[in-house]
Amino acid sequence: SDSHFPIPVSPAHVDYSLHFPKFVEADNKFIKKVEFADIGCGFGGLLISLATLFPDTLMIGMELRDKVTEYVKERILALRRTSSEGQYENISVVRTNSMKYIPNYFEKGQLSKMFFLFPDPHFKEKNHRRRVISTHLLDEYAYVLRAGGIIYTITDVEELGEWMKSCLEKHPMFESLTQEELVSDPVVELLCSATEEGQKVARNGGQTFRAVFRRIAYVS
Ligand code: SAM
C-alpha cells in the first residue's frame, strides 16, 4: 500500500540531489530540474537509452513495484560505476503511485517529455478508471508539462491504444504530432526498441499502437 513509500508533500520537498549528486554544485545549489518522466518505467530500459542521447537532461522513472524499483536503482548505480565517461548520472527512479502523486513531484510546466510505454491494459470496463491515461489524469499531465512538451504512449493492446489516442484527441490541451514530426523525433523509435516490454513484443512479432501528442500553449 501507499504507506510503504514516502510521499513528498510538494515538489520542493523532493531532494533531487540524492538522485543526481553530480548535478549539485559546491555550494549545495541544485543546478537543474527533472525534465523527462517515464511513468511505469518497469526495468528502466528507456531511461538507460535516453541517458546517453540527452546527457544534460535529468530524467526520472516512476514505478509502483518495490522490487522492480530497487532493481532499476541498482542497475543505474552499476552503470554509473562502470561508465568511464561519467554517464548515467542524469537518470534515476522513484517508487510511487504515479496515478496519485505526479503533482507531488513536479511543478507546473516542469516537464518537457512524459512517457507511458506499454502500460497495464485493465481490460474490464469497470477497471478502465485504473488506466494511466484518462481525461482526468490528462489534466494533471497538462499541468506538469510545459507548452510544447510531448507525451509519448505506446501499447501492443489495440483497444488500449485506441483509448489512449481518443483521450488525447478529446483533450483541449493536446494536439497530435504530424507524420513529419514523428519521423524527425529520435525518441519515437526508442518507444519500441528501448523498453523491455517493447523488445518482448518485437520478439513475438506483435503489433504496436502509438499516440504521440504535444501539450499546446493555450486553448483558442
Ligand atoms: N514501461 C515499461 C516497459 O515498456 O518495459 C514497463 C511496462 S509494464 C507492462 C507496466 C509497469 O507499470 C509495471 O512495471 C507496473 O508496476 C507499473 N505501474 C503500474 N501502475 C503504476 C502506477 N500507478 N504508478 C507507477 N507505476 C505503475
Could you outline the blueprint of secondary structure elements for this entry?
Layout: H1 16-19, E1 34-39, H2 45-53, E2 58-63, H3 66-82, E3 91-95, H4 98-105, E4 111-117, H5 135-144, E5 145-155, H6 158-170, E6 174-176, H7 179-184, H8 190-193, H9 196-203, E7 209-215
Parallel strand pairs: 1-2, 1-4, 2-3, 4-5
Antiparallel strand pairs: 5-7, 6-7
Bound molecules: S-adenosylmethionine.
List keywords for this structure.
single chain; Rossmann fold; 220 residues; globular
Shape label:
globular
| CATH class placement | Alpha Beta
Stretches where pLDDT is under 50 for at least 5 consecutive residues are none
Count of structural domains: 1
CATH topology name, in short, is Rossmann fold
Number of strands: 7
What gap, in angstroms, lies between the N and C termini?
42 Å
- What's the SSE pattern? HEHEHEHEHEHEHHHE
Number of helices: 9
Q: Give the biggest beta sheet.
A: 7 strands, mixed
